[in-house]
Design goal:
- The protein is of the alpha/beta class.
- The protein is built from 11 helices and 20 strands.
- Strands 1-14-13-12-15-10-11 form a 7-stranded mixed β-sheet, covered by helices on one side.
- It is globular.
Length: 448
């Protein structure tokens, strides 16, 4: 029996462009990219050179800090190019895909924790396991307090988990059976519906969240209500998609990270789902943008915490959503002085649009002003953050680099994505997520 947790704080951004629940295309791109920047905490060392042939599951990168952690190829083909930036920083490995995909066959076992770790590390699926605090790839030498999974996503325009993975419960169950051997605290799965397909899973501890507003679907928010992270504690998190990929490994002995991806947003010509692999070039869905590519912001992930990659970018390793927004470069006559503005959404009921709660808006990236004094009350952020922390004081502590205050105000419990709504509603227009990210980087440097 699951326990019920009621969350009332949060905010749903009423934006147009929700993807229709249908798979419009299956895309196997000519080239895919493996990007080290997708993996926080990874210090990459290259294992291939241009011209090398690879299979699905062949090692591409290894972590210099932990040589057991590998990043493997999502496709079979030939290494076309090693892309480097300033000071020869490794930006991406581009792989030209084969017409017919071939796989590395892994001899996997799940009889013990050591067997499971060996299989995940050798196959390159270990990076699906994220360690908190700090949101880095999990350390295989640590046993976590517990493993947490969010079975729903409340982010604006996010992929529908029931549609994307509702038919993969067998693979997800196989993933749970394997990961449950890695912790004595069990696998905790959070759902927000009594009708969820994922309630069929066994060997887990269910938590029923009665919450419809974002960020209730963030696993960090869920952990804060189930078992808050204290200093010197470690928990692991895995997405449902990651569980499915891990389950496929133990079912078939193959590295298979194919997925359904929601293509959504006001600038998407045909919001729908596609079936593809991580590293897909955004050029593969150029038809979804049409002639609007120059005025669109293309995001790998959701619109609050995803990565802006542009038309020349690639789908991220963890992403299951592609969001397309209009770049807000236009200036509005009289701006906020105009009182009616029924086509504009306001979280503070500043416009009459609040009288139409059912309406969806063609939102863009316009900030409607520049940065200003950072003086609002902490209660302003607390309205949209259902966590027992002090977000304003935490952000200021991160900005000041004060480790003692960062610990005091909750740095162990959050990742930047958890405070994305605070950034959205902030009248001072501060980049709160960047502040938290820099604070976490400082903690990693000083507390290592």
């Amino acid at each position: 029996m699951s326990n019920k947790i009621v969350l009332k704080k949060g905010l749903n951004i009423p934006i147009k462009g929700t993807a229709d629940l249908r798979v419009a295309r299956t895309i196997m791109p000519d080239v895919v990219a493996v990007k080290p920047s997708d993996f926080k905490g990874l210090l990459p060392r290259l294992l291939v050179k241009e011209g090398d042939a690879v299979k699905c599951g062949s090692p591409i990168l290894v972590d210099k800090k932990c040589s057991d952690i590998l990043i493997t190829s999502p496709v079979s083909g030939k290494v076309r190019e090693i892309v480097r930036g300033e000071k020869r920083k490794l930006i991406a490995v581009l792989i030209e895909t084969d017409a017919e995909q071939t796989y590395v066959d892994f001899d996997v076992k799940s009889d013990s924790a050591d067997d499971v770790k060996k299989a995940l590390l050798e196959s390159g699926l270990w990076p699906w396991i994220i360690q908190r605090p700090y949101g880095v790839i999990a350390n295989p030498e640590i046993q976590p307090k517990a493993i947490f999974v969010s079975a729903f996503d409340t982010a604006p325009l996010a992929a529908d988990q029931e549609f994307v993975l509702g038919d993969e419960t067998n693979a997800i169950q196989a993933g749970i059976n394997a990961l449950s051997k890695l912790t004595e605290g069990g696998v905790h799965v959070s759902v927000n519906s009594d009708d969820s397909n994922f309630l069929k899973l066994t060997g887990v501890k269910f938590h029923r969240f009665e919450a419809k507003k974002h960020p209730a679907g963030n696993v960090g928010v869920q952990i804060s209500h189930i078992s808050p992270i204290r200093k010197e504690e470690t928990v692991w998190t895995v997405s449902l998609l990651g569980l499915a990929c891990i389950g496929r490994l133990f079912q078939k002995g193959r590295y298979d990270v194919r997925r359904k991806v929601a293509v959504a947003g006001p600038m998407a010509i045909e919001p729908c789902y596609i079936s593809t692999v991580p590293g897909m070039p955004m050029k593969s869905i150029a038809g979804q943008i049409g002639t609007n590519a120059d005025t669109a912001r293309i995001i790998s992930g959701n619109l609050l915490s995803g990565e802006t990659v542009g038309a020349d970018g690639y789908l991220g390793f963890y992403a299951s959503t592609i969001t397309m927004l209009k770049e807000g470069t236009e200036k509005e006559l009289f701006g906020w002085i105009r009182p009616i503005r029924y086509k504009q959404f306001s979280t503070d009921h500043s416009y009459f649009s609040w009288l139409m709660p059912w309406r969806k808006y063609d939102l863009d990236t316009n900030l409607h002003g520049g940065p200003r004094a950072f003086v609002m009350s902490d209660s302003y952020y607390a309205k949209v953050l259902p966590m027992d922390i002090f977000p304003l004081y935490l952000a200021k502590a991160c900005l000041a680099g004060d480790i003692d205050k960062m610990e005091k105000f909750g740095i162990y419990e959050v990742l930047p994505e958890d405070l994305a709504l605070c950034e959205y509603v902030d009248p001072s227009k501060n980049y709160i997520q960047d502040m938290i990210a820099k604070g976490i980087d400082l903690m990693l440097k000083e507390m290592a």
